[in-house]
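Example record used in the benchmark description.
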Amino acid sequence: MDINFSSIVPSIPFILQGIGVTLQIVFLSLIIGFAWGIILALLKISRIKPLMWLADAYTSIFRGTPLVLQLLIIYFGLPQILGITIDPYPAAVAAFSLNSAAYISEIIRAGINAIDKGQTEASMALGVPYSKMMKDIILPQAFKNILPALMNEFITLTKESAIVTVIGVQDIMRRAYQVGADTYNYFAPLIFAGLIYYVLVMVLTLLGKGIEGRMKRSD
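Model output (structure tokens):
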């Protein structure tokens, strides 16, 4: 079979426009997921048992089920139950945010637990309020230690974002598929989409290594 890459050249700008859509979903989902992940992590280390169990159950559900299933439930299932219409873009952001928060909460929890217990005890002995201690002492140190893991989550989320094509979001993958359908040549546009994802991941990887190196030098 003859694979003609030249046939997709006129469609390259169309596919490249999907990069903006992909990055918007990833960045917004990461910001929301990070904020929700912090809350979940604090619930997991709290002394209030019901809150701990609730946070652990949430993490177990979202880590134990496929992301594509969560996306389909939000996009197709919730409208059926609630009687409302959810657009593909917010459905994608919601699914990725909720899923990412589960993983990020575990990363943050591990980072907090890695901090010397003596710092917590000293802060409490000095009468530092719990919220202030977490905000000014514990979390800044934890974030410094878990930054590489957060970058890995960012990279993973970038790759997994391709599944939004199943609900019609015009991301990189969806546009590549459309070009394949129009030209009757799926191989070339999908390979090109794969190249775009690869470049994005490599850029994020180098960015993460650069940040990690700078943090080591600051130590």
